[in-house]
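Same chain as my last thread, 741 residues:
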Amino acid sequence: MELACSRRNRASAPAPAEMPGDRRHLTDELGGAARGRRGRGRVVLGLALATGALWGTGSTEAQAAPLPHAVSFGLDWTQVLNDIGGPVALSSPNVATLAGGPAVVVGDRAGHVYAFGLASGTGVPNWPVNTGAVPVDSTPSVSDTTGSGLDSVFVGVGNAATPTEGGYLGITPQGGTQWFMNVQNPATDTAPAKAVQASMAVGNLNGSTDVVAGSLGEVGQAMAAANGAMLGGFPWFQADSNFTTPALGDVYGNGRTDIVEGGDSSAGFAYGTSYSNGGHLRVLSPTGNAGTGNPGGGLVCEYNTDQTVQSSPAVGVMGGSVGIVFGTGATFGGATTTNDLIETNAHCTPRWIDKLDGTTTSSPALADIRGNGQLDVLEGTRVGSGGSIWALDGVSGAAIWHQATAGQVIGSVVTADLTGGGYQDALVPTTAGVEVFDGKSGALVATLGQSAGLAFQNSPLVTDDPNGTIGITIAGYNSSNQGVIQHYEVSESRGSTVNETGAWPMFHHDPQLTGNAGLPSPVVEVPCNAPRGGPVGYAMTAADGGVFNYGNLPFCGSTGNLLLTRPVVGMAVTPDGGGYWLVASDGGVFAFGDAAFHGSAGNLVLTKPVVGMAVTPDGGGYWLVASDGGVFAYGDAAFHGSAGNLRLTRPVVGMAVDPQTAGYWLVASDGGIFSYGAPFHGSAGALPLVKPVVGMMSTKSGGGYRLAAADGGIFSYGTAPFYGSAGGLPLTQPVVAVAGF
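reply #2:
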């Protein structure tokens, strides 16, 4: 039996929740019920934002000086928790709709998940929820799973100090246990950890509302949010501890919710994979390892570092394309990627890497801090007993400004348009209060929680309060290692701006903790199944990505709702007929149904445009072909040659694979055929065509192929039967490809 990858002792992992100074010594004693101490509007902090000054380094952008706008924070209510020795630490406050309206929910290390009314700070009946003294460093995520209008709450239980205790917990809106799921480590794990320090992100992974997070064990798990049932393809073998909250989004524009996560790595070997000390960024299929035959299968792409990745990744569109931003950890001494902040494209290829002045375990925020409609990056660091806040250009990584902070920045930065000035300001949690910085200038304008001597290792929460103003909730600890929650309101502010485009109002962006600052609209995908008895027929696609199906092939969706950067030019159907791929002229690939994404040429500088594609016999890869006959192979597709070195009289317009030999044919616009590792069955090169040939497909047996013309006409060769054509239809767009059996 193959042994699972060896791991370091998780209890000796970096203490991601150290307390500074006399707050350092934490215990896990169980606290009792919360003790309320509330006051409304007793403390007012005045400040002025948007002075027009541009502080810090790295900016060359000229900015008009905005008008100063005075802002005041009123301390609305306070709750001091009875949890001395086990206060709120890494768990950030979130907002949930519970009985009585919006409520703040947060966990502590004494083993509670609290809920307090957002408007008044009063405790919600039947809360807090008790975990049996097992600490909660996970941030609660929320979702309505019953259709009642009330939110269930999902939280990881356990942390690095208690690796053998914990799991995944779902809580009803009424404060009861909705479900509990243990970490299901493989039997080969000789030191299984049960703790879940990461937070559960909520999204549609399997056609319903689901939750997903890694664990401090060897696996990550995805479960139905309603009942905790494990999804197919999970548990997924992650090999080592994962402290990061996954980001969720349609990274590839194919209608699927991809899982983007960080993770730790220790030297070892498991399930055919060698691991080294460090960490990784991963994009994982929403179906996990389903159908791969490998517990770690279903990995779409990965970027490895020599330092742990304990910063929860953020995703968004920067410079017109999808970007993923994350920091590293501080586990391995001498690692070259320590203090790095990294931005990759959707295929895990770095586009920029910044070496900052301190540890980058804090999760990045993506926000419009300059009011130009573009996402920039905010990242906090730990530098000795202090820290800093960096504002970086989302496209280039160049510093816009950065400032020292009074304490370490362990929790993630959040943002809000506090002044109504049309840009986001930064709220930076530190171990010496929550510091507020002007988004454009980087000027420090206020510190929250400082007068109470509070320290913070998590993120603030920005809300649209019931009275229509912007609310800010901070949850930290005092000098007695006791949890304290404070709620402020920003006078004369508009709460409706809290969730606007370009805002990052809480840890990992939203109450579902997706870490998604807004990805492009997904393709239109509809449920479809592989035809019973095997596929018969073919499908065509138009330049706008519209799909036409013939025979028994199902319609699985299209790109017809998207404004495409480049037109669709090719198509291939999965071997079982239950899905298909479309390819655009820039090499971008869209997958539908049971078609898996294996890569694309979308990030390459092409000499000639892509014009077609073909899939391998087992569906584990595909080829793309350019108009000059150049061939690009992905997945398990093998390269057999190309026409790239030939002087062609007509451009190549498509290709097809021979299922018998796994070779392929290329076809030119005049119907001429080029064979590579596949037999020749004839061509239309001598025919007077009304419209040019635009694509081709082979039969399932490999004994023939069909050519398709721009008017939808079909030409069959060898053993390929004729089922009909679109030649007589009034098409709004020309046919550009054909695929099928």
